[in-house]
Amino acid sequence: MKILTVNFLTCAVKACKTSPQSFPLHFRDAELEQQEIDFNPTFIANILPRIDWEGFKVTASELGFTAVPPTKPEGEDIGNEKLMRDLHTLLLETQVMEGKMVCGNCGHEYKIKEGIANFLLPNHLGEWAWRRRRHKVHR
Predict the structure, then answer these.
(1) Torsion of CA 9, 15, 19, 21, to 10 degrees
(2) Of the candidates 22, 12, 42, the residue with the CA atom closest to the CA atom of residue 117
(3) Helix (H) or strand (E) holding 99
């Protein structure tokens, strides 16, 4: 799972949808791997506006990457090749291969195996269960 992907994920538990604590998900026992891919500064420049920078800084810090700029690169910073390469390495080449992500609101753990996170919820936490409980209350 690329670090970039995590910036677009939140807890899947229905009760967490409105909680700011459900983003970003927090890594536990993460095993990282670097997979080199071609540097694409245009992609990095185009994806930067879509990244929640505060969430990204939390994720990077929890994984041990402390050199993330305090503010999102904009304007002239986009032309800084070293900065763009560093972001490319962290966002696209760094992958979490094993471990788990944990919701800061409900504590639910999403296991990561072979780079793939399992977002299937147990029945008692899923949308179907929530609707069933709600339906019983309104009868």
Answers:
(1) -60
(2) 12
(3) strand 94-102
pTM: 0.83
Q: What is the separation of C-alpha 20 from the centre of its chain, rounded to a whole number of angstroms?
A: 14
Question: In this structure, are residues 29 and 98 in contact, taking their beta carbons and an 8 Å threshold?
Answer: yes
Q: What is the pLDDT along the chain (139 residues), one digit of tens a residue?
A: 999 999 999 999 988 989 999 999 999 999 999 999 999 999 999 999 999 999 999 999 999 999 999 999 999 999 999 999 999 999 999 999 999 999 999 999 999 999 999 998 877 665 544 454 454 555 5
Residues whose CB falls within 8 Å of the CB of residue 107, separated by 6 or more in sequence, listed in order: none
**Reduced to 3 states, what is the DSSP secondary structure of residue 110?**
strand
Q: According to DSSP H, which parts of 13-126 are helical?
A: 41-47, 53-62, 81-88
At which residue do the structure tokens 């504590």 appear?
A: 107
Residues 6+ apart with CB under 8 A from 17: 10, 11
> What is each CA distance from 16 to 13, 23, 84, 122, in whole angstroms?
5, 9, 33, 15
